[in-house]
Amino acid sequence: MKIETELRDDHQMKIVAEFEADILEKYKHQAARKIATRAKIPGFRPGKAPYDVILRLYGEEAIAEEAKGLLVDDTYPAILDEAKVNPAAPGSLEEISETDPIKATFLVPLEPTVDLGDYKSLRKKYSVKAVTEKQVNEFIERMRKNFATAEPSTAPAKEGDLVALKLDAKLTQPVDDEKPEVLKESPVQVVIGENDPEENDFPYAGFGDNLIGLKEGEEKTFTYIYPEDSKYDRLRGKEVEFHALIESIKTLTLPELNDEFAQSVGGNIEDMQNLRDVVKTQLEDQAKEEYDRGYFDELIEKLLKSAKIAYAPQTLDHEMEHVVESITQDLAQQHMELDTYLKTIKKEKTAWMESDVKPAAQKRLERSLVLDELAKLEKIEVGNEELQNEFNQMINEMQYSVDPKELKKELKSERFANALAMEAATRLLNRKVLDCLKDIATGKAEEKAAEPVTEAEGEKPAKKSTKKAAAAEIAEPAAEEMPVKAKKTVKKAAADEESAETAAPKTTKAKKSDTK
Question: What's the CA gap between 136 and 292, in Å, rounded?
């Protein structure tokens, strides 16, 4: 067998395999038996009709076509080995000749390649803004409002009052068969004038101002146009008509800010100073999380600009499928189907896939590829002990959102244990990669490299391994005791593990066409 290869611009390998003369004859009898098993031939049981009968009934051409398929399936693994190709997904048979010797042309998508360039020269200062006393005071004031006492009032609603109402809402201009109803007699409570976007953004900031002057039992209808960047996807750019029925009005009396109030908050708070310290720490954590998001987004964008990335179209198609799956699940939580969503944004699915899904998938794929490459170059590994801690942390987090009885059902699920361990490993590895990226950008990596490496006498280094190997080691004993239930991200991890098998030759998807 002769092999010729050609690397295409779309990161696929064109492979032309030329087989030995008369090789097809070896497969014709197998092909005839295969045809016989599918066909109903009078006088013969399935698969028992002799070759000459199949030849007379179906002809030489039909047998030859079946034989070519068997030939390709049988020799494809060897073709990939000889061509030294590591496929990212199943290859396709583009054409196979009628002539002898037979030539088969395959198109095989290759594994992605990444060259990060001079990534060690990447620099960006890391500086999280300090939390101010004003921010601490504002947060405590919001807590104070949550502990306010409410007294019924018969006066018209005013700023600072707590108003309970029944709210109807509908789209003023629904699209096609889009349901106009948004809310139907929904119970809503609003503190008028409290326009803190973190605490009072439903139905929208400033909503309560429409209720000023109304009394219990009175009604009012008004409209609002949601901005294009609204957090409510369905309502972006839409005008909504609201109808409010006032059910009760209460005047709020705020508690005094003293040690007694601090203790009433809970969490073993002792006094106001202790409360202020706890609030400040919480705000600092939030500020760091928000800063990190923007900081690493910018660093990764810089990494992407200097990197050279190549991947086959099938790799991007696979990522697009994940994006669509994620969007569909998010829409389902809003009780909306994908087709309905597409109608609301006035896009055909094909156009939406190209304009919205493809860019999102491309960004997600390329970010993942450069971070994976950074982990390889920097030899970032997952230690079994730290993975075990991460694994336990995930279990603890899930216990707050899953019924204990449901958790027990997953106790002996080895498949789930592996998926959860892989998710823990991915989360841990991502965090370590980002820490490494920050060290490089801030110059700490150079400082660490300059420090002399010493090892305590008799001390053994912590055991480390690849993410997959470490995950398998952690998952094995956990399958017996783990009280957890799979979340969407964990299920996705399991699905991704299965998808790795698509590169196996036995799943080759061949498109057959003849050349003369």
Answer: 21
3-state secondary structure 141-169: HHHHHHCCEEEECCCCCCCCCEEEEEEEE
Total number of domains constituting the chain:
4
What is the C-alpha to C-alpha distance for residues 210 and 192, in angstroms, rounded to an integer? 9
Looking up residue 6, the CATH number of its domain turns out to be: 3.30.70.1050
Distance CA 121, CA 123 (A): 6
Q: Which two tokens stand for residue 464?
A: 């480390």
The three-state secondary structure class of 214 is coil
What are the backbone dihedrals phi and psi of residue 254, each rounded to the nearest 5 degrees, phi first? -80, 145
Main-chain dihedrals φ then ψ at residue 472, nearest 5 degrees: -65, -40
Rg of the chain, C-alpha, whole Å: 32
E strand residue ranges, 21-157: 92-97, 103-109, 113-115, 149-152
Range of the domain at 68: 2-111
Do the Cβ atoms of 367 and 299 come closer than 8 Å? no
- Tokens linked to 354: 């190209």
Q: How far apart are CA 477 and CA 338, in angstroms?
A: 40
Q: What is the pLDDT of residues 42-85, one digit of tens each?
A: 888 888 888 888 888 889 889 888 889 999 999 999 999 999 99
423 token code pair: 């998710």
H or E segment to which residue 491 belongs: helix 488-499
Strand stretches in 153-264, DSSP E: 162-171, 181-191, 219-225, 239-253
pTM of the model: 0.70
Instruction: Report how far residue 187's alpha carbon sits from residue 164's, in angstroms, rounded to the nearest whole number.
Output: 7
Torsion of CA 274, 279, 284, 289, to 10 degrees: 140
pLDDT, greater one: 236 or 24: 236
Could you give the count of Cα atoms lying within 13 Å of 507 in the half-sphere of its Cβ? Answer: 11
With residues binned 3-state (H G I as helix, E B as strand, rest as coil), the percentages for the chain, rounded to 5, are: 50, 15, 35
Whether residue 284 has pLDDT greater than 70:
yes
Which pLDDT tens digit goes with each residue over 383-418? 899 999 998 888 777 777 777 677 666 756 777 778
Look at residues 25, 30, 2 and name the one whose alpha carbon lies nearest to residue 15: 2
pLDDT attached to residue 328: 95
Q: What's the token pair of residue 128?
A: 């999280």
pLDDT for residue 98:
75
Give Cα 460 distance to the centre of its chain: 38
Does one domain contain both 106 and 199? no
Out of 209, 225, 253, a domain closes at 253
The reply to whether 23 and 82 lie within a common domain is yes
The H helix count followed by the E strand count for the chain is 15, 14
Contact 125, 207 (CB under 8 A): no
CA distance 292 to 284: 12
